Amino acid sequence: MKRILVLFLFLLSLVVCGCKSKERLDEDTFVNVYTDLIIAEDTVDVSKNFKNEIFKKYNISEKTYTNTVNYYNDKPEKWQKFFEKVEDKVTNMGKKPAKK
C-alpha cells in the first residue's frame, strides 16, 4: 500500500506538469499501465526510460497517461475503484494456475 501511495504522489506531480487534453486511457488499460509502473519502480531505478518502455508496451503517450491521471483527479471517487482493481491485479499476478 505504501508503494501505491508513493506512486500516487509521483502521478500527482505529473498532473501539475501535464497539459489539458481530452484523450485518455480506458480504465483497464490505465490499471495495467499503473501496475507495470509500480512493479518497475520496485525493481529498477526510477527513470524516464522505464516509463517510456511501459508506454511503448501499451502504445500510449505520456501525455495520454497524464490526461488520464488528470481525469481521475477531477473525479476523486473513481480512484477508489481504480486502486481496488490495481490491488486485485497485483495480488493475482503472484498466483500460479493450478496444474491439471
Structure commentary:
By secondary structure, this protein is an all-alpha fold. It has one domain. It is built from five helices and no strands. Helix 1 (2-17) crosses helix 4 and helix 2 runs antiparallel to helix 3. The chain is globular and about 40 Å long. The chain starts with a helix and ends in a 7-residue tail after the last helix.
Question: Can you tag this structure with a few keywords?
Answer:
about 100 residues; mainly alpha; 5 helices
Outline the secondary-structure elements.
Blueprint: H1 2-17, H2 27-43, H3 48-57, H4 62-74, H5 77-93
Number of helices: 5
Helix content: over 70%
Give the class from helix and strand content and strand pairing.
Answer: mainly alpha
Averaged pLDDT, please?
A: 78
Number of strands: 0
User: Percent of residues in beta strands?
Assistant: under 5%
Low-confidence stretches: none
* First-last Cα distance: 34 Å
Our count of domains comes out at 1
Q: What characteristic shape results from the CA principal axes?
A: globular
Rounded radius of gyration (Å): 14 Å
Elements, N to C (H/E):
HHHHH
